[in-house]
Backbone:
């Protein structure tokens, strides 16, 4: 009778005990893929991959409460989901015991406005959940967490190392320059993006402008990458009428000289360019197109006032 009882206990435990965690191995490769990354980024430098050990943090040696950082996550900082408009990337971690397939996979979001990163651990019935818990069961699957600054800095460095995107297109490197919602011209820029969309021009990304102080009197500017080319848009206060803006062009050899005067009483602003610059006025916006005649013609036809 005692033997039968012990056999029953053994059977019960065999059914209840979680599957053993696979052997712990070094992280040998990390891949990042998602919007703006035409070919997955691969990190194989052991000096980098070695900083992000999969078997650290929650779920390690029965740990249920972790105050410190581990893996890529700040485990004490469970978070709400980041804004949906931010790009979402898939990050896969490979270990030396199984180099051909991921040992752990998370979703990652980087908010470049404040440098904050977020990681999501797939929950039950979601893709990669089975792979992840087969590697290590952390007990907090299905939740978002703030990521370690070291990890965010690593991702930013990888994005910065990407080659510049071609005109009109955007890649992950461009997200580092995207116009933050806190920018004074953000509302105007979003309205401008909607205006361009209404005339059949698709805006791929909106970035902070490097020329926002170029035109005195404007309240800011933004750089737009569209399916028909790039352009800069300067925004004026609604109370200031742009119809009084005067633009004069003069050709000197291979150079193009421009003089802009927002009002008759204002001082002229001069520009020197190797290509023609096209200016289109619409509402409180001055659209600045450099060397792209077809885009300028479309804007003139559909927006010029």
Residues:
């Amino acid at each position: 009778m005692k033997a039968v009882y012990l056999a029953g206990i053994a059977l019960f435990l065999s059914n209840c005990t979680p599957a053993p965690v696979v052997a712990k191995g070094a992280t040998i490769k990390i891949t990042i893929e998602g919007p703006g990354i035409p070919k997955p980024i691969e990190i194989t430098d052991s000096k980098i991959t070695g900083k992000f050990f999969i078997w650290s943090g929650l779920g390690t040696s029965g740990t249920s409460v972790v105050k410190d950082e581990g893996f890529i996550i700040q485990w004490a900082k469970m978070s709400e989901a980041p804004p949906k408009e931010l790009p979402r990337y898939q990050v896969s971690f490979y270990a030396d015991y199984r180099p051909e397939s991921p040992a752990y996979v998370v979703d990652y979001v980087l908010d470049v406005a404040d440098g904050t990163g977020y990681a999501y651990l797939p929950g039950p019935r979601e893709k990669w959940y089975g792979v992840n818990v087969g590697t290590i069961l952390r007990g907090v699957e299905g939740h978002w967490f703030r990521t370690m600054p070291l990890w965010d800095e690593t991702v930013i460095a990888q994005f910065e190392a990407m080659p510049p995107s071609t005109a009109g297109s955007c890649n992950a490197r461009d997200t580092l320059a995207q116009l933050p919602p806190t920018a004074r011209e953000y509302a105007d820029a979003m309205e401008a993006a909607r205006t361009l969309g209404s005339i059949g021009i698709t805006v791929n990304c909106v970035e902070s402008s490097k020329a926002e102080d170029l035109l005195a009197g404007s309240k800011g500017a933004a750089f737009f990458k569209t399916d028909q080319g790039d352009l800069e848009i300067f925004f004026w206060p609604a109370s200031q009428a742009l119809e009084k803006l005067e633009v004069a062009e003069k050709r000197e050899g291979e150079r193009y000289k421009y003089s802009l005067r927002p009002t008759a009483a204002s001082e002229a602003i001069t520009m020197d360019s190797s290509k023609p610059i096209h200016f289109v006025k619409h509402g409180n916006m001055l659209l600045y197109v450099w060397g792209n005649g077809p885009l300028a013609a479309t804007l003139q036809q559909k927006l010029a006032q």
In short: The chain has a mean pLDDT of 85. Helices lie at 2-16, 46-49, 129-135, 149-160, 172-175, 186-198, 293-303.
